[in-house]
Automatic annotation (TrEMBL):
GO terms for molecular function: transferase activity. Transmembrane segments: none annotated. Residues 1-91 form the Glutamine amidotransferase type-2 domain. This is Glutamine amidotransferase type-2 domain-containing protein. Keywords: Glutamine amidotransferase, Transferase.
Amino acid sequence: VIASLIESSEKENIEDAIKEATGKIKGSYSLVILTKDEVFGIRDPHGFRPLVLGNLDGSYVIASETCALDIIDAKFIREIDPGEIIVLDKDGMRSQMMLPVDRISMCVFELIYFARPDSYIHNKNMFEVRHRLGQELAKEFPADADIVIPVPDSGTPAAIGYSAESKIPYAKGFIKNRYIGRTFIQPKQETREISVKLKLNPLREIIQGKKLVVVDDSIVRGTTSKKIVKMLYNTGAKEIHMRITCPPLLYPCYYGVDMATRKEFIANHKTLEDIREFLKVDSLKYLTMG
């Protein structure tokens, strides 16, 4: 859509065409546009998604996350601001606030799930943010358990934090297949269920006979969590206490994440106790907004 708007513009140069195109659209985007002579970095005026500027041997680099800069030994300069356009050409870099910024609304799932744990957002490391969420979970909702295990990988930092705060030993309860993608955005329920089995294999020697605290980042439909719980019980878990770092999800995202329809969100039509019974866990607690 954006490329088509730029291509159909009657503006005399590409920069003006880009500004015109982005002025017509509403939604979530962080763009890098390459032309023969220029590179453009553009972030939507709400700042839904991250976009960063770096420097490598005197040249500028634009990336979606800071971890990409680390890979090439580039130095992080700053985050590109919501509504800002960065232009890189033979003369260097120039910046302009391209669009009016009424309200900054960064997607909270970047902090909870999407961003890599080795990235920084708002000068905060994502591993440390998620570790802190786990610590807060342990303070709010302690559990009588033998070990704390994560649903890998997004639940790992929070599980380590929960373990550190609660003094319950941390353990690796699953081996993860690295070649399976994110299950909650799979289009069909059958595909999601098969993906869970292919993605995670529980470790019987760690789990059998144990009371578990299982830490995950979120529950969307609940079907993936239910499969994970069943796998753990089938492997011999004695008790399962689910702890979730994201408050209950009630509404879908309309800004670039195909999560689910509103009626599919389990927290939209079930109480906390209903969800606990659906998952068949001994206790279920979400981190509160406070």
